């Protein structure tokens, strides 16, 4: 057996050892890899509930602040890239 | 994740602006040097700021909008420092110049800070707060 073959065999053993260690460290996924029901409709319902609640309770000063922002951007549109830089 | 939502939504706009300016309009100014801040650091800072709010809110009772409004106080100097080193912001005697095109006198920087804090207050209150509630964080 040449030195190159021996090196290759040692690397294979190390790889196998690493695979074995990873298998032991990570928990098995089990048979049911997906949730038993579609979660997206529940998420949509939650988003609808939150958005209807939020739209009904916007105080007047928040509208005033938003108006002030729109006015500032209208007066100085060159600042839009700088604002986007910070978002 | 809720904290990083807004910067992640703004990223495609920035990339679109970059493509239009650099490739479409053939602007020679090296805009890409300035992209490291909005593309890498801003989302991370927003996410960390949201984590900080979640961690501290039981003690501070600070609404998420007010908490977010304080973020520009940290980001403005950080962004300006990075932009100066990247060459997209030039500090002159009486004004600063962004992207070789937008000159802002120092006197107006306080106004700009107020505008940034207002924008952040609204975005954090209504967008980040909404995402936090939907995800069950708040």
Main interface by residue count: A-B, 22 and 34 residues
Note poorly predicted spans of chain B: none
Provide the spatial order of strands within the biggest beta sheet of chain B. Answer: 1-2-3
N-to-C span of chain B: 13 Å
Proportion of beta-strand residues of chain A: under 5%
**H and E order of chain B:** HHHHEEEH
Return the domain count of chain B: 1
Helix content of chain B: 55-70%
Multimeric organization: heterodimer
Please summarize the sheet with the most strands of chain B: 3 strands, antiparallel
Shape of chain B: globular
The outline of chain A comes out as elongated
> What value does the Rg of chain A take, in angstroms?
30 Å
Supply the number of helical segments of chain A: 4
**Largest sheet entry of chain A:** none
How many DSSP-defined strands of chain B? 3
Describe the structure.
The complex is a heterodimer of chains A (87) and B (138). With 87 residues, chain A is an all-alpha fold. Chain A is 71% helix and 0% strand. Chain A has a domain at 61-87. Chain A starts with a helix and ends with a helix. Chain B has 5 helices and 3 strands. Chain B has one domain. Chain B is globular, with a radius of gyration of 16 Å. In chain B, 67% of the residues lie in helices and 8% in strands. Classes of the chains: A mainly alpha (87), B mainly alpha (138). At the A-B interface, α2, α3 and α4 of A face α1, α2, α4 and α5 of B.
Summarize the structure.
Chain A has 87 residues and is mostly helical.
Descriptors for this entry?
heterodimer, A: 87 residues, mainly alpha, B: 138 residues, three-stranded antiparallel β-sheet, 3 strands, 8% strand, globular
